[in-house]
C-alpha cells in the first residue's frame, strides 16, 4: 500500500533549520524524532482494564529536532507554546504530586517525565538534548494521543542522545510511567502501543492484559478495487473546538474507577477475590451470570467493556478481509456504546458523531480519545472524502456556531491517511 508521506522533506528541513540556529550546528548533525498521532477505531476505553484494542497511526504528529548536549543540560523550545524548558538529566525527577515544578512552562512536564521514567528503571543519563518540538497544526488537545506522542518523542530523543538501546515494548512501559506515575493520569497503554508498534496500512491489535500485539494486514485494496469493486478509504478528523487537559478532567479517572469497582464486585460475587480488580480478569460467562446484580452505572461500564471486546475481534476479521462496510458498522456501534454505556462525550461531540454518520461515503464514526474533548474520527470512501468533509464542516457550524467559530475552518475537518511508527531520523 506504499508508505506514509509524513513528514515531508520540507517539514524535516524546517525543524532542522530551527535547531541549527539554536545550536550553531549544521543541519546534517540534527536528529529528528517522528512520533505520529494515533486513532483507535475499535477498543475504546478498555485498555486500562486489560482489554483487546485496535489502533493505527495517521500522517500527522510530533516532530522533535535535537542534538545531544555536551553535558546533562536539557533545553527545549516549542512551536506551539511560549517560553523554554530547562533542566538537567542528572537531577532526580519526582512525580508532580510530590513536588511541583518551578518552571513557568508546564508543557515541559513531558520532557521531565521522560527523564523520570528512564531514571526510575536504572538508566544512566549523562547527556541532555537541545531541541525544538512541534506538532501538526491545530491537533493538540484533539483526542489523538498528542500527549503520548510527545512523551514517546522525548524518550526516543534522550535514548538516542545517551546511546541507549531500548525496545518498543520497553518504551511502552516507560511512557506508561510518564502518564501514570509522573503525571498521575490513570490511562492504559493503548496510545503509546499504537505509536511505537504500528506499521503503515496495518491495524495494530494489542492485548493490554498480556501486552502481546500483532499486526493485521489488509488485502491490497487498490488491486481489489480494480477486481471486484472494493473501496479504498481515507480517515476524517472532525474537530469540536472543545479543549480540556485530560489530567484536570475528573470524568476520565472516574470512569476508570467505576470499571474497577464493577470488576471488584463481579470477582467477589464469583469467589475470585484474589484477582486484581480489572474487567479482563472477569470471564465473560461469569459476567453473564452476575451482571444483573451490578448497580446500574457499573453495569453499563461493564457492558461497554465486554461488548467492545467482541467488536474488536469482529473488526479484526473485517479489516483482514477488506470489508470496510462491516468495519465501519462496528466503529459506529462502538461510538454508540461509548455514549450510552461508558457515558462519555458531551452535546457537541455527540452532535459531531451524528453528523459524520450522515455524511456521504462514511463507513463508520466514533469519538477519538477519551470522549471528553477534541474530535471525532470516521473512515470514509476515498472517492467521497472531500464531499464528506465539506458536509460535516457546514452542518457542525449550524448546530454549534460558537464552537465552530473557534476552529480554523481550513482545518476543521482533515482528510488523513494511515501513518507509520515512531522513529528517529
Distance between the termini: 22 Å
Q: Tell me the number of strands.
A: 12
Structural class: alpha+beta
Order of helices and strands: HEEEEHEHHHEEHEHHHHHEEHHEE
User: What value does the average pLDDT take?
Assistant: 91
Share in helix: 40-55%
Overall outline? globular
Strand residues, percent: 15-25%
Could you please describe the fold and organization of this structure?
- The protein contains 13 helices and twelve strands.
- With 425 residues, it is an alpha+beta fold.
- α2 (109-120) packs across α4.
- The longest helix is centred in the last third of the chain and has 25 residues, at 296-320.
Break the fold down into its secondary structure elements and pairings.
Layout: H1 9-23, E1 31-39, E2 52-68, E3 73-78, E4 84-88, H2 109-120, E5 129-135, H3 146-161, H4 168-182, H5 190-197, E6 203-207, E7 212-216, H6 221-228, E8 233-239, H7 250-269, H8 284-290, H9 296-320, H10 324-340, H11 347-358, E9 362-367, E10 375-381, H12 385-399, H13 401-405, E11 413-416, E12 423-424
Parallel strand pairs: 3-5
Antiparallel strand pairs: 1-2, 1-12, 2-5, 2-6, 3-4, 6-7, 8-10, 8-11, 9-10
Helix pairs in contact: 2-3, 2-4, 3-4, 4-5, 7-9, 9-10, 11-12
Top keywords for this entry?
425 residues; alpha+beta; eight-stranded mixed sheet; four-stranded antiparallel sheet; 41% helix; globular
Amino acid at each position: 500500500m506504499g508508505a506514509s508521506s509524513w513528514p515531508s522533506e520540507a517539514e524535516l528541513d524546517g525543524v532542522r533549520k530551527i535547531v541549527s540556529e539554536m545550536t550553531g550546528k549544521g543541519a546534517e548533525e540534527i536528529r529528528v524524532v517522528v512520533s505520529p498521532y494515533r486513532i483507535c477505531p475499535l477498543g475504546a476505553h478498555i485498555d486500562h482494564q486489560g482489554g483487546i484494542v485496535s489502533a493505527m497511526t495517521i500522517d500527522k504528529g510530533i516532530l522533535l529536532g535535537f542534538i545531544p548536549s555536551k553535558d546533562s543540560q536539557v533545553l527545549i523550545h516549542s512551536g506551539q507554546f511560549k517560553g523554554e524548558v530547562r533542566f538537567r538529566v542528572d537531577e532526580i525527577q519526582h512525580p508532580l504530586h510530590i513536588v511541583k515544578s518551578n518552571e513557568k512552562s508546564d508543557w515541559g512536564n513531558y520532557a521531565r517525565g521522560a527523564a523520570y521514567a528512564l531514571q526510575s528503571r536504572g538508566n544512566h543519563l549523562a547527556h541532555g538534548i537541545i531541541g525544538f518540538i512541534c506538532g501538526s497544526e491545530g491537533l493538540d488537545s484533539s483526542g489523538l494521543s498528542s500527549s503520548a506522542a510527545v512523551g514517546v518523542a522525548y524518550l526516543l530523543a534522550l535514548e538516542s542522545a545517551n546511546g541507549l538501546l531500548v525496545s518498543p515494548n520497553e518504551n511502552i512501559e516507560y511512557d506508561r510511567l510518564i502518564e501514570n506515575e509522573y503525571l498521575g493520569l490513570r490511562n492504559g497503554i493503548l496510545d503509546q502501543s499504537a505509536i511505537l508498534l504500528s506499521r503503515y496500512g496495518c491495524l495494530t491489535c494489542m492485548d493490554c492484559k498480556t501486552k502481546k500485539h500483532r499486526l493485521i494486514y489488509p488485502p491490497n485494496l487498490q488491486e481489489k478495487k480494480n477486481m471486484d469493486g472494493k473501496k479504498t478509504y481515507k480517515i476524517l478528523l472532525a474537530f469540536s473546538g472543545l479543549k480540556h487537559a485530560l489530567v484536570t478532567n475528573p470524568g476520565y479517572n472516574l470512569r476508570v474507577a467505576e470499571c474497577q469497582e464493577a470488576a471488584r464486585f463481579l470477582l467477589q460475587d464469583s469467589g475470585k477475590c484474589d484477582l486484581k480488580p480489572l474487567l479482563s480478569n472477569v470471564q465473560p460467562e461469569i459476567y453473564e451470570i452476575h451482571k444483573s446484580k451490578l448497580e446500574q452505572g457499573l453495569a453499563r461500564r461493564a457492558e461497554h467493556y465486554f461488548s467492545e471486546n467482541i467488536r474488536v475481534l469482529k473488526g479484526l476479521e473485517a479489516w483482514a478481509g477488506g470489508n470496510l462496510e462491516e468495519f465501519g458498522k462496528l466503529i459506529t456501534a462502538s461510538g454508540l456504546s461509548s455514549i450510552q454505556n461508558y457515558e462519555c462525550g458531551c452535546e457537541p461531540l455527540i452532535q459531531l458523531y451524528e453528523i459524520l454518520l450522515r455524511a456521504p461515503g462514511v463507513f463508520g464514526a466514533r469519538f477519538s480519545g477519551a470522549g471528553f474533548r477534541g474530535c471525532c474520527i470516521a473512515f470514509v470512501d476515498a472517492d467521497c472524502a472531500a464531499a464528506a468533509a465539506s458536509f460535516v464542516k457546514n452542518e457542525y457550524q449550524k448546530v454549534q456556531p460558537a464552537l465552530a467559530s473557534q476552529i480554523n475552518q481550513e482545518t476543521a475537518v482533515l482528510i488523513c491517511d494511515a501513518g507509520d511508527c515512531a522513529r528517529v531520523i
